[in-house]
């Protein structure tokens, strides 16, 4: 249980190294920013600022000064070995909490922090340092790993990748710990001690021994004179990353092994725990040589997770081939299996929960028993690239996979000789770019499965499984779902009304609803805007029998996990998100009852379990305002701002325009405008949709009540128009950077290397490429922009010279 949390200790980059003093009063942290900062904290005090801090200069210098902040002064003296580099280790002097040392691979820095109560210190002193190079001792030094202070004198030691220890000593004697000197000590490398051939990865002190751990997995103990006393070795231990000794004192000398010195004195040391670079943890009892393996975690990226559809089980797969099945309620691993020749990329349970399919980076597919993880058939290898997506049909008759080679492959379960077997049905290169989603569904008019795939080529492909045969995967239809944005994920929208929808999310932070039969875009809304677009989404299962219409959506972005309240309408207060894996999220899965969401972190090799607090999310929605208030707040200046008043003016001007500007008849005051006026008001507000986007907006309003009433809507009120504007306009506006980029693509380099475009070429491009304009439309736009047709209507017929 945390007893104290220091927020934003190093806001720029986080913390790269931390240590606690022996008396447990002080913490020292080193930031991971471009300019590293060292901070000393008295963590028992409620203050959110360090007692002192110093910035580490980027470049190595022979004259180095510390920077002071807080109620104490931090002084540093560094010893260099080559260029300055990133400090990634720090440790306190156990005899004096006002001293500590840090090091990088090529640099060691000694610190002294002094309380201001001992006397005013306006400016920290500087200290000279001479480089430690191979010429210093005539031997290769290697990269520094970790440093410690000597337990008997004023010396310090640093381990290196060459298996050596650098011995540092103060050039003048060190006073007692209670009398810190006003100036830092000048530390000098006095000896380079070769200890072994293998690189030292860990260096620490336990009682009266120096302890080294190396890349071979050996643990060695040395006395104060650096004489080898004892060591531990095991053939299955990899490179050691850390060692931790028991708090319990060592056993009696009579029960301990003898040291390897000539005197053969009893060797007494505490039990310890090792963690290795291959993600294994061992416990070593020092009264013997037995290594007990406590846990073995993934050694490489964790990219695959899947939750059992009916039990509290989650399967986790990694690129090292380790597949583990966890009981997430008890936090225990039930069974594991290692695929020695494969890297697991994705996992998927069958709807009944009897089977678990695993896709690998080599293109192979394994179908396993869901509990024992034993293979139920021979592996399939019909994909020529890493398998990225998998999905079972609702009746478990089909298994579909998608791979990086842009192919969709379907496998079928058949019964032969009374036994159920799996066979390859067919495959198809269905897309031209990366496949983002692969989903099975059920036909509305029956129980036949539907298979859909969505890719970055903006194509939504539906396959005709009933017409497919061995070696032939038939396509039922293809639909382009985006014009400019890139679709990123796909989900079946829950049946919240009469009409059935497919939900997509794209790279422009928009979510779209498509009719499952016609594939018409029925609604576009603003999606969550938390730094990056949605990468994957899942509808959370519901166990709420009292209100089955209350549904929720879980999603991940580049580094966040979040939940969205359904139905989607563009209200930003209906979603929330938290950072889950700062280096990126690889996969998402939800528990069978919707209580938990799991995320895989990829290269950070971790899986996070998140409890979903739906009542808290529901309570936050009304706090954002009722009815149109959340949408007003998305306008510049809100409901009372100039932008809203200008929008009102244009809206009512559109009424006048629809009746005729010059009419002398009595006008009918209304709160609506015809749908035909929507694009003109949108453009007046600075949003310039394409013709396809205009058609989507008009159809969205026109058919919004068709399923319920059988009639088309022909007009829109101001409130609905504001929602339409908010949901369809660019999420972050149109930047000048994008406009310049467009002209750079269209233009060419002149003799001065500048991007230019000829007027005639621009006019021809507007009439021949993309949504090409007619000559009359182009003339009308240009006359309006030039102010000769200020009302924006169609100008009188004429000709336009496009030759430039």
TrEMBL record:
Q: Name one Pfam family in it.
A: ANAPC4_WD40
Database matches in Gene3D superfamilies: EF-hand (1.10.238.10), YVTN repeat-like/Quinoprotein amine dehydrogenase (2.130.10.10)
Q: Name one GO cellular component term.
A: sperm flagellum
Q: Where in the cell is it found?
A: Cell projection, Cilium
Q: Which UniProt keywords apply?
A: Cell projection, Repeat, WD repeat
For this protein, the record's InterPro entries field holds:
Apc4-like_WD40_dom, EF-hand-dom_pair, WD40/YVTN_repeat-like_dom_sf, WD40_repeat_dom_sf, WD40_rpt, WD_repeat_EMAP
| Source domain of life | Eukaryota
Question: Residues in domain Anaphase-promoting complex subunit 4-like WD40?
Answer: 341-393
Instruction: Return the protein name.
Output: Cilia- and flagella-associated protein 251
Q: Which organism is it from?
A: Nothocercus nigrocapillus
Q: Gene behind this chain?
A: Wdr66
């Amino acid at each position: 249980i945390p007893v104290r949390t220091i927020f934003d200790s190093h806001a720029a980059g986080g913390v790269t190294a931390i240590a606690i003093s022996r008396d447990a009063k002080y913490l020292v942290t080193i930031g991971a920013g471009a300019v590293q900062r060292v901070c000393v904290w008295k963590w028992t005090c409620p203050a959110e600022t360090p007692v002192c801090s110093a910035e580490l200069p980027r470049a190595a210098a022979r004259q180095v000064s510390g920077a002071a902040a807080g109620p104490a002064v931090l002084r540093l003296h560094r010893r260099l070995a080559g260029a300055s580099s990133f400090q990634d280790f720090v440790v306190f002097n156990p005899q004096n909490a006002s001293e500590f040392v840090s090091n990088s691979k090529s640099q060691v820095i000694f610190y002294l922090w002094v309380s201001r109560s001992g006397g005013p210190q306006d400016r920290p002193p500087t200290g000279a340092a001479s480089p430690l190079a191979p010429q210093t001792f005539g031997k290769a030094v290697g990269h520094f790993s970790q440093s410690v202070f000597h337990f008997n004198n004023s010396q310090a030691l640093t381990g290196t990748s060459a298996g050596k220890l650098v011995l540092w000593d103060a050039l003048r004697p060190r006073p007692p710990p209670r009398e810190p000197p006003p100036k830092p000590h000048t530390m000098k490398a006095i000896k380079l001690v070769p200890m072994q051939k293998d690189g030292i990865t860990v260096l620490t002190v336990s009682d009266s021994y120096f302890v080294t751990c190396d890349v071979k997995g050996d643990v060695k103990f040395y006395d104060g004179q650096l004489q080898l006393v004892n060591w531990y070795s095991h053939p299955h231990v990899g490179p050691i990353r850390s060692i931790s000794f028991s708090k319990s004192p060592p056993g009696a000398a009579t029960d301990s092994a003898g040291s390897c010195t000539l005197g053969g004195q009893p060797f007494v040391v505490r039990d310890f725990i090792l963690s290795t670079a291959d993600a294994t943890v061992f416990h070593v009892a020092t009264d013997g040589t037995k290594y007990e393996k406590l846990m073995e975690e993934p050694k490489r990226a964790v990219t695959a997770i899947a939750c059992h559809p009916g039990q509290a089980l989650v399967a986790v797969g990694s690129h090292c081939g380790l597949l583990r099945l966890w009981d997430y309620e008890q936090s225990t691993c039930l069974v594991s299996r290692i695929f020695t020749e494969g890297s697991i990329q994705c996992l998927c349970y069958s709807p009944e929960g009897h089977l678990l399919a695993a896709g690998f980076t080599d293109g192979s597919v394994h179908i396993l028993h869901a509990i024992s993880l034993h293979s139920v058939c021979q592996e399939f290898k019909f994909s020529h690239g890493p398998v990225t997506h998998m999905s079972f049909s609702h009746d478990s008759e089909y298994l579909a996979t998608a791979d990086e080679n842009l192919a969709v492959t379907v496998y079928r379960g058949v019964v032969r000789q009374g036994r159920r077997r799996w066979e390859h049905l067919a495959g198809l290169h269905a897309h031209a770019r990366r496949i983002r989603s692969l989903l099975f569904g059920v036909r509305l008019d029956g129980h036949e499965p539907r298979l859909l795939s969505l890719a970055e080529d903006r194509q939504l492909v539906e396959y005709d499984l009933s017409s497919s045969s061995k070696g032939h995967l038939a396509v039922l239809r293809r639909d382009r779902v985006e014009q400019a944005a890139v679709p990123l994920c796909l989900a079946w929208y829950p049946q919240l009304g009469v009409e059935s929808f497919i939900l997509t999310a794209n790279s422009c932070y928009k979510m779209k609803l498509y009719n499952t039969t016609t594939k018409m875009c029925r609604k576009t809304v603003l999606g969550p805007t938390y730094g990056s677009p949605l990468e994957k989404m899942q509808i959370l299962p519901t166990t709420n029998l009292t209100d089955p219409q209350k549904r929720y959506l879980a999603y991940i972005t580049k580094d966040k996990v979040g939940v969205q309240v359904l139905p989607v309408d563009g209200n930003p207060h209906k979603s929330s998100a938290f950072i889950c894996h700062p280096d990126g999220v690889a996969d998402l899965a939800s528990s069978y009852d919707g209580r938990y969401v799991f995320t895989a972190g990829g290269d950070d090799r971790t899986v996070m379990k998140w409890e979903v607090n739906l009542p808290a999310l529901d309570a936050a929605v009304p706090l954002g305002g009722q009815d149109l208030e959340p949408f007003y707040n998305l306008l510049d200046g809100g409901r009372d701002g100039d932008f809203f008043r200008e929008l009102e003016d244009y809206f009512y001007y559109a009424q006048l325009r629809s009746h005729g500007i010059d009419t002398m008849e009595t006008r009918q005051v209304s709160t609506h405008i015809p749908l035909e006026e929507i694009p003109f008001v949108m453009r007046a507000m600075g949003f310039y949709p394409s013709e396809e986007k205009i058609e989507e907006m008009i159809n969205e309003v026109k058919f919004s009540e068709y399923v319920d009433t059988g009639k088309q809507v022909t007009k829109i009120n101001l409130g609905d128009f504001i929602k339409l504007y908010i949901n369809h306009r660019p999420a972050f506006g149109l930047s000048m950077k994008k406009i310049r980029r467009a002209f750079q693509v269209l233009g060419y380099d002149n003799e001065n290397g500048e991007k230019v475009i000829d007027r005639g070429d621009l006019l021809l491009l507007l009439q021949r490429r993309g949504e090409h304009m007619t000559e009359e439309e182009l003339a009308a736009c240009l006359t309006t922009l030039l102010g000769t047709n200020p009302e924006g209507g169609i100008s009188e017929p004429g000709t336009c010279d496009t030759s430039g």
